[in-house]
Predict the structure.
Amino acid sequence: MADYILFAVVALSAAALGVPFLQYAGRRGNLPGYLLVAALLVALASTILNATSGSTSSAPFGSLLASDSLGNLFAILTLFVTLFVAAASLTLVPSGKSSNTPFYYSLLSFAALGMLLISYSADLLMLFVSWELMSIPTYALAGFQKDREESNEAAVKYAVLGALSSAIILYAISLTYGLTGTTNIAAAAASLGSQLTDPVAGLAVLLFIVGFGFKMSIVPFHMWAPDAYEGAPTPIAALFAAGTKKAGFVAAIRVVLAISTVYSLTPQGGLFTIPNVLAVLAIATMTLGNLAALTQKSVTRLLAYSSIAQAGYILIGFVVYSYGQGNPAFAQQAELGMTGALFHIINHSVMKGAAFLGAGLVILKLGSGSVEAFNGLGRRMPVTAFAMAISFLALAGVPPLSGFWSKLLLFTSVLNTPYAWLAVAGVLNSALSMGYYGWVIKRMYLDEPDGEASRVLEPTSFVLVLGVLVALIIAFGLFPGPVISLSRDAVPALGGP
Amino acid sequence: MSYVLSLLILVPLLGSGATFVLSSLGGGRKTAPYLAAAFAGATLVVAGYAFFWAYSHTPALGTYALMEDHQWITLPGFGVDIMLGLDGLSAPLVLASGIVAVLSILSSRTLIDKEEPAYYALLLLVLASVMGAFTSLNLVVFYLFWELTLIPMFFLIGIWGGDRRKYAALKFIIFTFAGSAVMLLGFLALYFGVSLSTFDIPELANLGIPVGLQYLPLLAVFVGCAVELPVFPFHSWQPDAYEQAPAPVNSLLSGILPKFAGYAVIRIALGLFPQAAYQYAWAFIVVAVFSMFYGAVVALLQSDLKRMFAYTSISHMGFVLFGAFATVLSGNPLGIEGAILLMFTHALATSSVFTISGFVEKQSGTRKIPLLGGMGQRVPLMAALLAVASSAEMGIPPFASFLAELMVVSGGISAYAWTAVTVLVPVITGGYFLWMLKRVIIDPLPSAADPGRAVEDVSRVDATVVALYLVPLVLLTVFSFLILSPAAPVAQWTANLVHGGLHA
């Protein structure tokens, strides 16, 4: 029953609207954070209930929301991400007398609500409203440290490009409505499929890819990401990488891949097809992300580029899936590819979450996010260093950690299609990525600390958050079966909605 | 279903955790080596049992002893299971790994003096992954264990190694990770390529992979193996890693890890892609022969003991590649039989010379050959050990390394007569080893070389450890059938793939 989703919406709205009043009650400490954590737990519980109840009804929102397994997967994922971001913020965001913590947690709650609704959106207008509900609070969150210049720069850059991407999405929606006369995603996709001859249909699909591409930070729409990740408070960078980025992916799955039954973007067919476009974006994204990451001196920037590169791997699954849409002979590969993409999306949230939060604690405690600060971290902050090392190895795809299996599925799925070269590129990129992941691990464990070498206190609550994430990385690696089958269940049926 | 092979992996794996926890709790320095030795010893017992089982119940052509099959991931459209098995190819390697691990831990007692709990835990972790790699019959699980040796090895080189350890460790991990990733690509290509979607080696071998699908996976597997063996021009990480690793770690790094590649060449490159391997065998033989000469000639030019041994290793691993592909080309099983024997003898011989180089460095403060000298008079026991171990490494009777090289070269000649020229490789090797021995043992200490003065002789215990590496090599000269009789069906089966008309 979709009533469960309603619980989640109410809990998050209550937190979003209620928490700011604490500012005027003078409660600026961590109380708002605890309230948000509670609201998120309620929301998470209700989405899990919704998932297990197996309901596919869309009431009481009419055709605006669809409670399907894809929606459940992303709703649970994004709520879980917001949960660990909120929990880590309790340590990482200063909660003194002059702080604005109530607004911080309120904005976070709005963003969570937006991501939740994007996950379930079945209508383009609902999708757009949820998209803005997610995006606008994060513009403010990126600039939350208002006395830091980089934070302001990050917020402005992110807001301008974010607004541009929203405008592009809105334009694509209007084109779609003009062509099909509906904003219902399923109906619009089916209708666009019958309008093969109209180049405007191809333009609409392209604009959707561009618009969602900004949030997914795929090359060449990634320019905002490194600055925003570095300038934003680190837990918010974790939210960008693990949360809002994933909302971009679910939107793309719902809209672009549903329409990819159209297959060819131009009337004449030829090279300009959706899988071809996605394949070019995939290889550009993974290669540029990894190459740029190799040259970074700041760990948050390094993680930002690594996050871009990982989006490239995920796109491999999209390529295979959209190719399978047009070629039923490849249905098996398409399903496996999308399974791998969803699994990698889940893994990436967990891995990047651990990495960013670890980096956040280092920045808080050592006052610097440059790679030099990580020298000898294995001795100074053993838990943080271990969590980061495990997440780096998982990101590089070292078995038996979670990232290995999802990459394995992605590469296996693409190898016997015409896009086999994407697997070659992906494997070479994984090897390349060891260059920077191994480099940071070397600094943490092999190098001696510069200057002060004393042990740094790691707060227990924070250690708990990192512990949960690391445990998930290892558990998904040793027992990937259940998560893979969850991802598989969420793969939208081939052949369009 | 037997659980011997699971035990082979689980004993060192659990031992790794237990050693770390127990020795961290109390008296790390003292207890860690003994705990680790106990677990490695237990592993050796299991390995010995498995080896003699595979020997006494030699599996028929193309089958395996002590088979186990555990479901891991079973989903519609995707499955990976942990399939373990032993045959005449893997049994000697499992036994050699057990021996090398125990002796490496015993020699670490004097050569490692910091953070013992972590060191021994990592060493046992390497052992567990090594056992997993040699026994697993599923391509993905094989890759997984292969990768799993690299990470602990990275830390073993990077934390306990020599002056340039960090550089060497990073180079090691980047090269080997890249190589094995390419190899994985070859494995994955098979999944949707064959009618039965599976990663199990026996099933794929029985199914027979279409020839058209063999070429690129063969190339991918070869690249992975070429980095790990290593073969020119993929070897640049190896002299640095071998030189910088602590001597006991060398035993595993140079004694065992290259055998992954030798094993994968025979089991996977030849076993799964026989027709493609047959067509391009000439190219692989050229690469192998070049590598044999290259390693030997460059070793001749080295002034550092460990770098010299490292290049010697390149040369010897070329023999393995040479023997394997010679069998495919000629159908004469001698090449693979020799390669299997050579992998066993090389594991022990190389470990012994690297271990001694560790003692030499500890006592003299240097490994530079020009700075060493006069060992025969000052430290006779160390000099004697170095001389004897070098004989084993260069392949002089009564050490079985001699027999192995002889078999490989004879097998090679039956493929191409011109490869008889490889007889020169052992001659070059013998030449530079004897030259090294002359300079280090007989020549007087160079006057300006205080650092080269060995202060103390090796202790009796350490000398025994080195001697224990060599005893099996002497015994094998007489009892070579222990390795060769189970190896014969593997070699014959591989030769039959092309020449016996099984799948041709």
